[in-house]
Amino acid sequence: MKVLHKSSCITCKKSISEIERMKKEIEKRDFFKDPLTETELKKIIKISGKKPIEFLRKRDKMYKELDLENSKKTDAQLIKLMIKHPGLILRPIVIDGNKVTIGKIQKII
Predict the structure, then answer these.
(1) Are 28 and 80 a contacting pair, CB within 8 Å?
(2) What integer pLDDT is reported at residue 105 of this predicted model?
(3) pTM, whole model, 2 decimals?
(4) What pLDDT is recorded for position 103?
(5) What pLDDT score does 55 carry?
């Protein structure tokens, strides 16, 4: 199981603790220190079956600054923005085989 996270994020820390408590094998990657490539993010989004807009973290200041709420950006443009501004990516992202879960841990279980 892979967890893409931000080390200072409280939600990420809680999710990682919960996964460890469940005795799951876990591979952690702080995507702020080890950024995702555009190809990696596209693959994760494809596996998830979600749209790139569903990966946006609406509480991030860049979300407001870029006015993404009212923007008509394409999926490709959103992915490029998330690569440029990783704070826009909803976290944590948990990858378990062919299953991708984003956000809080209760969505994983």
Answers:
(1) no
(2) 65
(3) 0.90
(4) 87
(5) 96
Residue 108, phi-psi category: left (phi > 0), alpha (psi -120 to 50), beta (remainder): alpha
How far is the C-alpha of 60 from the C-alpha of 36, rounded, in Å?
Answer: 18
Q: Give the Cα separation of 86 and 37 in Å (integer).
A: 11
The DSSP letter of residue 28 is E
What CA–CA distance (Å, rounded) separates 7 from 27? 13
The confidence score (pLDDT) of residue 71 equals 87
**Segments of the chain with pLDDT less than 50:** 107-109
CA distance 82 to 70: 17
The contacts of residue 87 (CB under 8 Å, 6+ apart) are 32, 57, 60, 61, 62
Q: Strand order of the sheet with strand 93-96? A: 27-30, 2-5, 93-96, 99-102
Q: Which two tokens stand for residue 48?
A: 């998830």
